[in-house]
Amino acid sequence: MADEAQIIDGKSIARAIRGEVADSVAALVAKGHRPPGLAVVLVGDDPASAAYVRSKGRACEEAGIYSVQETLLPTTTQQELLGVIDRLNCDLRIHGILVQLPLPKHINEQSIVEAISPAKDVDGFHPLNVGRLAGGMECFVPCTPLGVRELLIRSGIQTQGARAVVIGRSNIVGLPMAQLLMGRGEGGDATVTVCHSRTADLSELTRQADILIAAIGRAGFVTGDMIKPGATVIDVGINRVDDAEAEKGYRLVGDVDFDSARQVAGAITPVPGGVGPMTIAMLLRNTLESAQTWARADVRG
Q1: What number is the average pLDDT over the span 89-107?
Q2: Residue 51 — very low, low, confident or very high, per pLDDT cuts 50/70/90?
Q3: How far apart are CA 233 and CA 210, in angstroms?
Q4: What is the C-alpha to C-alpha distance for residues 63 and 230, in angstroms, rounded to an integer?
Q5: Residue 179: its pLDDT value, please?
Q6: Rounded Cα–Cα distance for residues 56 and 178 (Å)
Q7: Are strands 267-268 and 232-235 parallel, antiparallel or unpaired?
Q8: What is the share, in percent, of the chain residues with pLDDT greater than 70?
Q9: Which residues on neighbouring strands pair with residue 233, listed in sequence order?
Q10: CB–CB of 39/98 below 8 Å?
Q11: C-alpha pair distances (Å), 93 with each of 28, 33, 140, 216, 281
């Protein structure tokens, strides 16, 4: 049996990035500038969203980032939410605004995303930032694909000249991931194929990939026989599957069947503990970079 794949430890890499962010925050404050500020807006009482928001708050505190949470009722109107965003856009203590998705069905998500100032759009979802990424210009990049690129770079995975396959075409992960991999410079210069649920002969394409990124939202979708021997496999998926033996009655798995994939891949991310921790680390770094931009403009309030 071939050696099992190297496990890419997202927890340890994210911990290092969060330490770097904390050092940079301290240096910014030492120069007399405000600490970076992040506002997270939560509409409703979805338990998973609430838990994720709490984890972001803890991460901010550890890094020295000022954070506020705006918790709104499920019955909040779109106009009321727009009013909160307008207030945060004007708040000089806030350098990043994140509206936790999904929103209640009566609120138009795109309208909310577009209401956030592009200069504070640390999620990278505003059309202006989306367009700048497509054009290869400086911008905020969605945190999950940005985290994947950082995993590749810090794990020494060669992207230049590599053949990459991204499974999934969402605006949040798949498409920006492809753009980052195709971009020039470190973590880029790859030849990229984007696949999705309607792709014909999917396995034939995935078996050609030196780097395979799964972000399709289907538990165990990618199996070992779909992977090129020695390839790097990045699993973005987080899916709940029933497990009577688990304490909570379920367990978290990725879009990749880990047990079969690790027998073939050269390197692989686990779920949990792979891409997930990187998403919050990149959110902190985006918020820091926003604050540094404001500091350069000497906007102190």
Answers
A1: 96
A2: confident
A3: 9
A4: 36
A5: 97
A6: 26
A7: parallel
A8: 98
A9: 212, 268
A10: yes
A11: 14, 10, 19, 37, 20
Could you give phi then psi for residue 51, rounded to 5 degrees?
A: -65, -40
Is the pLDDT at 28 greater than 70? The verdict is: yes
Could you give the angle at which helices 143-154 and 276-296 cross, rounded to 10 degrees? 100
Residue position matching structure tokens 């020039």? 184
Catalytic site positions: 56, 100, 123
pTM score > 0.85 for this model? yes
